[in-house]
From TrEMBL:
Gene Ontology terms for molecular function: ATP binding; protein serine/threonine kinase activity
Assigned keywords, A-Z: ATP-binding, Kinase, Nucleotide-binding, Serine/threonine-protein kinase, Transferase
CDD domains: HATPase_RsbW-like
Species, as recorded: Streptomyces tagetis
InterPro entries in the record: Anti-sigma-factor_SerPK, HATPase_C_sf, HATPase_dom
Lineage: Bacteria, Bacillati, Actinomycetota, Actinomycetes, Kitasatosporales
Listed name of the protein: ATP-binding protein
Keyword field contains Transferase: yes
Length: 150
């Protein structure tokens, strides 16, 4: 009979959920992300929770406003890697167009909108766009977990 193996600690947590490509779906994605972070001991109101919640809100809103394809959902995936202290947010949709890089604040293109990716760029440590299996793309951002959580 083989000796029992020691069980390794879980250091990566993942949450994935599809949402309807509506304003209600984007709001639910934000709320569930905040709740999941709290379950992962990144409490409500902490700097990392507020940052990740803002990133989820902006990327989900973009998926609904700019990435919507009728009859298709968008997906939110959160990954928390405790060993490196990073929360990765991925929002995928089936629209083929990739978001444009943010323009500096003084440009008229951001006068009435277009600030979402500027906010993501300002608060996330890194962000980008990658392809996905099937149609569409994944817009992702990474936020470091730093210092005290409260």
């Amino acid at each position: 009979m083989p000796a029992p193996r020691a069980q390794e600690a879980v250091t990566v947590s993942v949450f994935a959920q599809r949402f309807s490509a509506t304003r209600r779906g984007a709001r639910l994605a934000r709320r569930l992300a905040t709740h999941r972070l709290d379950l992962w001991h990144l409490p409500y109101g902490s700097p990392v929770s507020d940052t990740v919640t803002l990133v989820v809100a902006e990327l989900a809103a973009n998926a609904v406003l700019h990435g919507r394809v009728p009859g298709r959902d968008f997906e939110l995936r959160l990954t928390y890697d405790r060993t490196v202290g990073v929360v990765r947010v991925e929002v995928s949709d089936t629209h083929p167009a990739h978001p444009e890089p943010p323009e500096p604040a003084g440009h008229p293109e951001v006068a009435d909108g277009g600030r979402g990716l500027l906010l993501v760029e300002a608060v996330a440590d890194r962000w980008g766009v990658t392809g996905r299996t099937g149609p569409g793309k994944i817009v992702w951002a990474e936020c470091a977990v730093r210092g005290p959580l409260l």
